[in-house]
Design goal:
Blueprint lengths: L18 E6 L2 E9 L3 E5 L12 H5 L4 E5 L17 H15 L5 E5 L1 H11 L7 E5 L9 H13 L2 H9 L5 H7 L7 H11 L2 H13 L5 H4 L6 E7 L8 H7 L5 E6 L6 H4 L1 H14 L4
Parallel strand pairs: 3-4, 3-5, 5-6, 6-7, 7-8
Antiparallel strand pairs: 1-2, 2-4
Length: about 290
Amino acid sequence: MDRPEWNRQGRDWPNREASRFVSAARLRWHVQVMGQGPALLLLHGTGAASHSWRDVAPLLARRFTVIVPDLPGHGFSGMPHADGMSLPGMAMRVAALVAELGMAPGVVVGHSAGAAIAIQMALDLRLTPDLIVSLNGALKPIRGAGLFSPLAKLLFLNPVAPRLFSWRAQASGATARLLGGTGSSIDARGVALYERLFRTAGHVEGTLGMMAAWDLDDLPRRIGRLSPQLLLVAAAGDRAIPPGDAAEIAGRAPHAEALLLPSGGHLVHEERPAELATLIIDRSAASGLL
């Protein structure tokens, strides 16, 4: 399956000067590292890549050493075997990447599925951050997952499906409509970057593979064993993850707090990067991490 090519799809990638390629956990990773100060890890959600943090990362880099990987199978990182696309598999591999970089993030920020990976790493003691920030975190089974998960598995096993989806992404306005369905309105540059990835069958394969392997049935219960502080940020206009999930999850963890943003959709960090960067910096400072 064709993967996104660094010298083609990545030719003008956001924050390209911070990019490097690193081998860890039998994968070749694309990761961006920028800034100085305490280490902070940013994890994007399903179907995205490091570009999702394109405007947030440079703002955080004024206070932190920021680590921004493309998750396995996404963007310019390699595609692992099927078990590597599960939640525990991704958590293990991301932790191996961070270890290869020689860093120990005190703060981990995850968007959507990235928040689940952050929490899984902490529960497995693969990373020991002091603070986890979940942005519209996908931490509960998604409605209809009983139907969707088998469908995702079938699509993932069908070699034609990723090419079909990537072909569909070339239709005029298809990507903008897909992103708009999450409740967010992002700039034209952001839409074009998603479209560039969605047109590549290998990236679509990684997205479908992650969706097929994802199992969140047990995560809400296990969150009660979480040691780090957990800030669950939810945007009121999120159409992908019910905003009320944040308050419910906060009631399960010993050091958790839910924060509802009055506006913004699922991609709120791309809609209002300065506001989200300030929120992360302020919470880190209040926790004594800066």
